[in-house]
Amino acid sequence: MAPDPTAGPAVQYPPRRRILHLAVDYPDAHDRTKTLAIRNFVKANPAVDHVVVALTRTGDPRQVDLIRGDGAGDQLVYSMRYWGPPFGMLLFPSMAIVARRIRALMEQEGIRVDLVHAHKLCFEGISGYLLSRWLRVPLVCSIRAEAESKILRYLPHYRPLIRRIVRHSRRLYYVSLWYRGEIERLFPEAQPLGRELPNFCPGTRLAADAVPDPCRLVTILHLDIYKKKGLGRLLPAFARLAARRPGLSLDIIGR
């Protein structure tokens, strides 16, 4: 059919951007019980395309593998089990190997991205830093205090590397906002880069007429890892507060 000469010019839509996410805490084919926070964040941002490399550490190099999909039908997730000793030993070599494997995967699958989002500064951030430089695309990093604090405290010789990653990043997203002061104390160059990034909880909305109860406190956490979430410190602190404030209550919510 000949084109209609009276028709206006075809609408030109800008190409969609694509983000490469590197995340250990993402439900994948190796472990479907991982926390949903990062997955919720990815699914809540449909304005761009996403490719996720979900990482699972193994101390046995014979268990290293790569599975297309998340084990639940999402083919834009790659489940990568990588080798790495415990306690952060040989952290840089293991993360460099991860970066090389991801670059090879992208070349094999023809994946092109506009941005790399590493979902922990001191772990995935190392792989993201290398990939960002190799691919010549920007890097952003999320900061989760439970993981970052261990590396910065017990492996202080990694601080110069983390400083380079901070300087290279376009943004630092604080999921653990309370740790921002420590990051900026160690790395003053992080100050202009920081932004808040709360965990996403879909389907939880307050009624329009809801009035907060100042005597009712709520905490939401993954109960299978309650020690990491600090519940053992929260309960004694709340008990001391409740002794001075009759009627105070604490709800603990989590699977």
Strand content: 15-25%
Question: Roughly what is the average pLDDT, rounded to an integer?
Answer: 91
Residues in helices, as a percent range = 25-40%
Count of helical segments? 7
C-alpha termini separation: 59 Å
Write out the strand line-up for the largest beta sheet, numbering strands in chain order: 3-4-2-1-5-6-7-8
Integer-rounded radius of gyration: 21 Å
Q: Based on helices, strands and strand pairing, what is the structural class?
A: alpha/beta
**Total strands:** 10
Major sheet description:
8 strands, mixed
What form results from the Cα inertia axes? globular
Order of helices and strands: EHEEEHEHEHHEHEEHE
Which consecutive residue ranges, at least 5 long each, have pLDDT under 50?
Answer: none
General description of the model:
By secondary structure, the protein is α/β, with parallel strands linked by helices. The chain has 7 helices and 10 strands. Helix content is 31%, strand content 21%. The longest helix has 19 residues, at 91-109. It is globular and about 60 Å long.
Secondary-structure blueprint:
Elements: E1 18-23, H1 37-43, E2 49-58, E3 65-68, E4 77-83, H2 91-109, E5 115-118, H3 124-135, E6 139-143, H4 145-154, H5 159-168, E7 171-174, H6 180-186, E8 194-196, E9 216-220, H7 231-244, E10 249-253
Parallel strand pairs: 1-2, 1-5, 2-4, 5-6, 6-7, 7-8, 9-10
Antiparallel strand pairs: 3-4
Helix pairs in contact: 2-3
Entry summary:
This protein is an alpha/beta fold.
Keywords, separated by commas or semicolons:
21% strand, two-stranded parallel sheet, eight-stranded mixed sheet, 31% helix, alpha/beta, 255 residues, 7 helices
